[in-house]
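so i finally got all the pieces together for this one. its two components total, 500 residues if u count the protein bits. some of the lines might not be protein, just check the labels. i wanna see the whole assembly predicted at once instead of chain by chain like last time, that was a mess tbh
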Amino acid sequence: MQITPGLTRSQFESLFRNEYKGMLLFALRFVKDEEAAKEIVQEAFINLWEKRQSINPAGQVKSYLSTSVRNRCLNYIRDNKRYSGTLLSLENLSPGPYIEEHDRLELHELSRQIQNAIAELPGKCREIFELNRFENMKYQEIATHLRISVKTVETQMSKALAHLRKKVDVTGTG
Amino acid sequence: MEKEPTYYELLVTRYLSGEATPGEITELSSMAGQNPENETIIREMSQAWTAFEKTRVNESVNLDAEWSLLEKQLPVTGQVIPFYHLLLRIAAVIVILAVPLFFVFRYLGHPSLNEISANTGRMDAILPDGSKVTLNNGALLQYPDHLKGKIRSVNLKGEAYFDVAHDAAKPFIISSGEIRVEVRGTSFYINTQSTGGDFELVLTTGKVELYFNDRSGHPEVLVPGQKAVIRDHTISILPNSDPNYMAWKTRKIAFNNVSLNDVAATLSKVYQTDIHLGNPLLAQCRLTATFDNQSLASVLNVLKATLDINIRNSGTLVEISGKGCR
């Protein structure tokens, strides 16, 4: 359909809707702060829009985008003294651009496993984990909210993660 | 069910959940490389974390909201415009020019801002878009005729509770000085002039964005149960610890082992009257009680009976006296 090179607004919007979640996940692996990760992904899309005339929509838009997200993340963790080459390589984040496979069935199965694993957590542990992950509350905020120590929050978060590690089949992820 | 986590596992969890300090990251980094076992632990914990995040992001991210946030920031200049697009743009310029002139003429004709103020106690109102607002005594709300236009914009001074009608296409923006509160459809309590002069907002349902007028691209986002306080041009977000923040509207008050000092502060806000403690030791008395739509006189009677105190109510001032508690 496209005669002239460049990305139209509707192509850009559908690209955003298709790739946003994958890019956010990718950014979250570097930058463990949701708001910062969101901002980085937004910036990468804005940068893509500014360069849209030189972008071939049939070409490697996605790899351009993921490279852009990765570089912005690396800059962010460097600037905020959160950079560690060792951890990045252990998390398998150093090489190449990011390719996310969209397998709905696989994601559905993963989601089921994770829901089951979370349902198995003891009440307090589950509550703490959910406040942290779904309500975006920091350890300190959870401690204040539940009138418990930060140490307890930390221990329960670690137990929740240990349980996920045991129960969730992560082959093919990360 | 799980054994107690080791120091190393705690560190990995802190790192993954974004709680680790730069120092802890350095420490973790050297521990992780120490032996193959540690490498395996961090790799597997990170995989489990990522797997969880994958499902969370997939289920919880709202693409419409993220797109409209992005759309606002897209620059519109510097593109090659096909001819018919250019025509559209000219039409848009005419409309853009015409709109402010239209407002100027209207403004000259008659004031286009409507005002609601609560001068004699609480006041409930329904705005033209269907949003409900309760103003507490002394609050002032201004809004343009019919709340037409791309955004629903109102000005607020004082204390109010909003239950905003949902309209995803037209954000509802409350301005108070340089502070902006942007919502689509949600309910929340707001006080632009709380005790001490701070701005306060407590979110009941839905989601609100809070920002300064010169930083609209960087909103603070609140979730239900959170409270935002703005002091010295800084927004802090914390869990709301006051269960009685809505009592001025609902007249439902619950005190759970609350000091008489705080009881007096809540009552004076709800009943719009000054309450004075005659003896500093009275502040140490604690009260557990609930009141549902009771008059000030009957609330004071309960206080008197439970705390062994004397109360004199002159109508504008309540004076509490007694030995107090230790």
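The radius of gyration of chain B is 27 Å.
Chain B touches chain A through 62 residues (CB under 8 Å).
anyway lmk what u think
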